[in-house]
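Notes, p. 3: input format for complexes.
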Amino acid sequence: MNNISVIGSGTMGNGIAHVFAQHGYQVALIDISEEALKKALATISKNLDRQVAKEKITEADKTATLANITTFTEVAQGVKYADLVIEAATENFEIKKQIFQTMDAHSPAKAILATNTSSISITKIAAETKRPAQVIGMHFMNPVPVMKLVEVIRGYATSDETTQAVMEASAKLQKSPVEVNDYPGFVANRILMPMINEAIYTLFEGVAGVEEIDTVMKLGMAHPMGPLQLADFIGLDVCLSIMKVLHEGFGNPKYAPCPLLVNMVTAGYKGVKTGEGFYHYT
Ligand code: CAA
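Output follows (282 residues plus acetoacetyl-coenzyme A):
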């Protein structure tokens, strides 16, 4: 594997492009907007600067990493020579369906098609392509350059060969891949999101305030961020949509999203990205 195409240059997409390029892969970074691509390259450069400042990499590594990234505004062009395509576009099935159909039509027959989805069924996405055995989930965690996990999700039809290739590629990024099966929330979000939702219920029911809840989990459980701060960081809209996937997928009332989370998202309080969530961001 040498040529990687990444579709979507937002927070996750630029992080994924960053780590592949840093490990010597040729990366085609694809987004519909030139503006978004420019912003993504600036973010990657800034995040590489952090690594240079911490003496984790050299200036020469930074230059080499940036030189490994080429940008495209057309999926059909950007996936033409790919060995592995990773889709990291908006978390919406209709958008992903269209992208996967285009990826399938224009990437080489041997290419593996992966998605960074945090909650949409891999099996359902794979069914939109003519190569379901080569479709897989590759779920990176934010911030991608820092977090060690890649949750590798096998759809119902994903082959052993595809899984092995993606496990090996993840290990080459010096990440720890973990293989899981395709059920709602996979493993990461099946466990993380009910914890965040419970923290929101704890606030909603007046058991404690925002900072108190986060402090309990940070100092008591050694979590790097409290659950409410983490929810702001992930995006409250993303948290709500994942809770809905768990609730609908399992039909169990224990996954019902907290009414406070629903209200906050409805009001446009989505966390860091909108400047307002459980905390205020300037
Ligand atoms: N790129 C490169 N390096 C970065 C970075 C980035 N985007 N962001 C942070 N860093 C580096 C910093 O340079 C620093 O490096 P050193 O350890 O060498 O000093 C290190 O990461 C820690 O950063 P900071 O000192 O700035 O801040 P911090 O100590 O508060 O850590 C954090 C920040 C890593 C984000 C930490 O708070 C953390 O781990 N938070 C939890 C993150 C988490 O749970 N992520 C998963 C979210 S769920 C998800 O992504 C999936 C989903 O489906 C919802």
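The first helix runs from residue 11 to 22.
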